[in-house]
Amino acid sequence: MAIRVNLITGRTIQQGVSMEAGKEKPAYTTACGIIELDPADFKKLGAFRNTNVRVTSNYGSVIVKAVEATQGPHPGVAYIPMGPWANMIVNPNTYSTGMPTFKGTPVEVEVAKSEPVLGSLELVRKGCRGELA
Amino acid sequence: MTKTITDVVCPFCGTLCDDLEVVVSDDGKKLLEVYNACAIGAEKFLHSQAKDRITRPRMRQEDGSWKEISYDEAADYTARMLADAKKPLMYGWSSTNCEAQSVGSEIGEAVGAVMDNTATVCHGTSLIAVQDIGIPSCTLGEVKNRADRILFWGCNPAHAHPRHMSRYSIFPRGFFTGKGHTGRKVIVVDPRVTDTARVADVHLQIEQGHDYELLDALRVAFKGEQLPDVVAGIPKAKIYEVAETLKSGRFAIIFFGMGVTQSIGKNHNIDAAIAVTRDLNEYTKAAIMPMRGHYNVTGSGQVWGWQFGFPFAVDLSRGFARYNPGETTSNDLLRRDEVDAVFVLGSDPGAHFPFSSVRKIYDLPSVAVEPHETPTTEICKVHVPVAFVGVEVGGCAYRMDNVPIETRKVVDAPEGMMTDEEFLKSVLMRVREIKGV
Amino acid sequence: MAEFLIKNGFVFDPILGIKGDVADIAIKDGKIVETSAVTKPKIIDAAGKTVMAGGVDIHAHVAGPKVNIGRNFRPEDKLFNCTPGHGIERMQGGFSVPTTIRTGYNYARMGYTTVMEAAMPPLYARHTHEEMRDTPILDQGAYPVFGNNWFVLEYLKNHEIENTAAYIAWLLRATKGYAVKVVNPGGTEAWAWGLNCDNVHDPVPYFDITPAQIIKGLIEANEYLGLPHSMHMHANNLGNPGNYTTTLDSFKLSEGIKPNSKFGRDQVMHHTHVQFHSYGGDSWANVESKAKEIMGYVNSHDNITIDMGQVTLDETTTMTADGPFEHHLTELNHLKWANADVELETGSGVVPYIYSPNIKVCAIQWCIGLELALLAKDPMRVFMTTDHPNAGPFIRYPRIMKWLMSQEAREQQIDAFKYKDKVIDATNLAGIDRELDLYEIAQMTRAGPAKSLGLAHMYGGLAPGLEADVAVFDFNPNESYVPDDIENAFSNARHLFKAGVQIISDHEIVSNGNKRTLWVNARVNENPQVMRDVKEKFLRYYTVTLNNYEVSGHYLPNPYVIEVDATQ
To answer: C415: which residues sit within 8 A by CB, 6+ positions away?
Structure first.
């Protein structure tokens, strides 16, 4: 079962703190390797909180942990804190402005219980080497 | 014995708080405690003390492992890479001081680089809008002392600029604002019920990506003209009400962030927001300000402004300065394979660029000058760790309202580490030797 | 240091009183010396050429926050004019708001060696100094603005001159500033509420003080301190038809105040860009020149100096701390508008503007500026400026020289105006046949501004002991010439020396010189009240701390401090 939502990215204080503490550390993954979903969307997805999910857009795909929205309700809108996980799937087109379209990417979310959320360095390294599934 | 250093400037975000107190050991080598900072700022100071910090340059080997090299070798590699490249990209420049940015400009001129800063993924579209329509703005103290209407549009200072609301915008008691937050009306426009929206008097939960429509609707409402029943998910009665609230203030300020700069519409959203501000000046006093992210991204735009005339995306590769966002901006250059080497300082594109651009950096000769270990250092060929600006070395930085503040050194960097400025100077020297100038 | 002997040039120097006679100028150790004092000088052949002291610009906006707003928000100002590095020159760009590097070089090419930044918002002093540091060759200083500063408003409301003076001394030191600048006194504070002060008696909202009290009080505080320069004034009501009465009212506030300065100036008020303040009529339909009335006053009161603010008929970028004026302007021309109000201190605005010869008002403005200079009885008190870049870019100074020196050139321009007859009716210029000579030009561009700044002991002349700032131009005043020869020769100095260093040799820039930043360190008696007020304002109302406010030394790598003792 997959759902379609509108993805936005941005800063959170946990993202900021863990980034300054070290992007190689697990806390950074905990803060940013997530997708915040509205309870209504959880229901549609038919998944428990804190389940790993695969998020796929026209531009890529990434495994993150689905958590309940902290700044909701926002049904139909999903949130991944800015960072390498979000950047695997955002719309990179700048439409001649220089600015990638970080907010407003249509994505599909499906449960991927057994797949791991990678750490930031590993994610980027594997992505560059073409080692991601 | 310990020493307390006061009036310390926080090198995290564009709020550039300058009232931190830092306790250091007697010998000035250890940073023990940080007061007055937000959680992020405190972490930035404390992380400089990490035991596992990388303190020497390193080069990626064929087998994927790192090999330690000297700063001289790193400078030599960097200089050769830049000098050999036809069109290198020199990106970042936002988490460093103006002094280093200035040396970077000289290198950029010598090697014909494209100079771009993090505005390119942050407020670059705001800078474009300002070139279209201007920007009526003010310093943050004007907000603190006068503003009674505060509008946050597509920004969430509770998370991104944690002390902004208490120092400048919502809560402080200023000269004409002795009642603090009770004398102010706070409006938040955001598709989520953010923690900032929770402290607002009015939250307009806008349909994501429809900022332009709502901004235009406000302009219509100011003039008392007819609106459709619903605009961008907001009922018209609410829009008229907010328009009246803004017009009836003595001093209105609009703060805006990535919600408008990165959503579809981009610079046109900001055009509309500035037009709203211009319109408001027909009725009362109004100002608008971008919530700049990195603590010195603003400074980078200032330095390039007086040296080249453009605030970001400056292409020096033809021997003179050119500027054409969409063409000379980092992500467009990378995606189109138009650069042949990448130098990064004071930013982490590995984490914050779309992955299609990150992959291009991986395929190119690349150097990252960066105190932390980051996704960027992970994919670059050479990583040059440096002292933290604002912690281990001082220098000038520009706040989001363009006010320049001199950051302070509070502790020594680990033995033998270079600063950004020192490393760049040695690269510049090597470039000049190689180029014979 | 190298010695130079500039031989056989036609020298124009008001300090030595030489009016085009052939003379030799000797340079040693950075100073002008007697020709007998050099032993093995490098000879510069100036035969058939004009020799003058380095030019001194008393008022230009060349460095600081609003200048950089102008650069960054006008990419079109750089269209087709960005140039690559060349020899020792770095990349350059920009027309009306050039990069700092072009600013330094373009002034040098015109033979200018000292340029004062006309308005420095104190909170942004660090920025202004960073830009000046990156401007090669020129000696520079910057004027912090005081006319809307809360300390000043509060002290002068009760006519507390000593406290005002102590605060000025403190702020000059904190910002490394040079002089007391006043811009639309009270009006910019009113603009923080979207209002303005239209005349000298229009009270400032909340602060309950009039512009007249601010102006008079700041003149008195300036003389209490005995600063090198006088109070430097941009009056209320700039740029509006009928504003000349406000200008005269402002002038009159200086009456009866005598200069108290060891630095050789005779004025207590310098009024800048007077062209913008000399309009009659009551609308843009009937605006007319009141230059005669203005110059009638200036000519008969020797405690005032002024500068022109000459319109050059270019597309340019206006910028001023007169925030309400720029809002007024954007409503007139509908071009983009930047505004930057500064807490407790000042404000500013920036708007592009096109001075078209096809627009009647622009042509009238052009006439008024020239009339001011041509009606001047004493060229030592009326200086050439464009209020760069407000009325036009500074690179047009040689063109203004042409207009001032040649009635033929003026007639050519008047003939080219679309509304020639209406312009002639509204102005006096067509009836003025005076043609200035190079000696008078040297007074208006060298000796005069240097004296007004209190820097006659350093700049503005070629007398032994002065700084060796010397320019040689390809211009022979004794041969026949057409007006354009003036503009061409003075746009492109043959040689230039700054403090004894050869900067230009045969039209090529060969050195970046040893740029200095001038600031005034005024010592006053300890004043606990002012220091307590400063502490309190920083604690409660500023958004930077007091300890992070002062501009520290490394922003001025080569400072030149002028000491003033006002402790008695």
So the answer is: none
Cβ of B160 and A101 within 8 Å? no
Judged by CB atoms closer than 8 Å, whether chains meet at C84 and B319 is answered as: yes
Chains that touch A (3 or more CB pairs under 8 A): B
Q: Is C539 on the interface with B (CB under 8 A)?
A: no
Residue of B nearest to A101 (CA): B262
How high is the pLDDT of residue A1? Answer: 79
Average pLDDT over residues C79-84: 95
Rounded CA gap, B42 and C40, in Å?
64
**Residue-range domains of chain C with CATH:** 4-52+459-509 (2.30.40.10), 53-452 (3.20.20)
Q: Which pair of structure tokens corresponds to residue B154?
A: 């597509």
Q: With a cut of 50, which residues of chain B have pLDDT below it?
A: none
Helix (H, G, I), strand (E, B) or coil at B181: helix
Q: What is the DSSP string of A63-84?
A: EEEEEE-SS---TTEEEEETTH
A and C adjacent (3 or more CB pairs under 8 angstroms)? no
Question: Do A23 and B374 lie within an 8 Å CB cutoff?
Answer: yes
Instruction: Check if B132 contacts A (Cβ < 8 Å).
Output: no
On the question of pLDDT at C568 being above 80, the answer is: no
Query: What topology does CATH give the domain B124-290?
Result: Dimethylsulfoxide Reductase; domain 2 (3.40.228)
Q: For residue C161, give how far its alpha carbon lies from the nearest alpha carbon of chain B (Å).
A: 24
**Chain B residues inside the 8 Å CB shell of A10:** 156, 159-160, 258-259
CA distances from A105 to A78, A122, C383 (A): 10, 24, 61
pLDDT at C1 over 90: no
Q: Within an 8 Å CB–CB cutoff, is residue C81 touching chain B?
A: no
Q: Which of A70, A68, A64, A75 is nearest to A32 (CA)?
A: A64
Q: What is the dihedral of CA C391, C395, C401, C407, to 10 degrees?
A: -70
Can you give the residue ranges of every domain in chain B? 2-47, 58-121+295-435, 124-290
Judge: B208–A11 Cβ closer than 8 Å, yes or no.
Answer: no
- DSSP-based three-state secondary structure for C406: coil
Q: What is the pLDDT of residue B50?
A: 87
Question: Chains near C, with 3+ CB pairs < 8 A?
Answer: B
Q: Which residues contact C236 (CB under 8 A, 6 or more apart)?
A: C184, C185, C186, C187, C197, C198, C199, C200, C202, C211, C246, C250
Q: Would the pLDDT of C30 be above 90?
A: yes
Residue type, B227: L
Contact A127 B331 (CB under 8 A): no
Please indicate, yes or no, if residue A44 is contained in any of the structural domains: yes
Residue A133 has pLDDT above 80, yes or no: no
CB within 8 Å: A102 and B373:
no
Fold category of B58-121+295-435 in CATH: Rossmann fold (3.40.50)
B263 touches A at CB < 8 Å: yes
Which chain A residues touch B128 with a CB distance below 8 Å? 97-98
Q: Do A100 and B261 touch (CB under 8 A)?
A: no
B332 in contact with A at a CB cutoff of 8 Å?
yes
B123: which 2 tokens? Answer: 């407020």
User: Domain limits at A109?
Assistant: 2-128
Query: What is the pLDDT at residue C457?
Result: 98
User: Which residues, 6+ apart, have CB-to-CB distance to B64 below 8 Å?
Assistant: none
Flag if B158 and A121 touch (Cβ within 8 Å): no
Residue C333's pLDDT band, with cuts at 50, 70 and 90, is very high
Question: How far does chain A reach from its first CA to its final CA, in angstroms?
Answer: 20
B117 three-state secondary structure: strand
Alpha-carbon distance C317 to C352, whole Å? 4
Query: Would you say residue A42 lies in a domain?
Result: yes
Using a pLDDT cut of 90, give the percent of chain A over it: 98
Q: Do B137 and C340 touch (CB under 8 A)?
A: yes
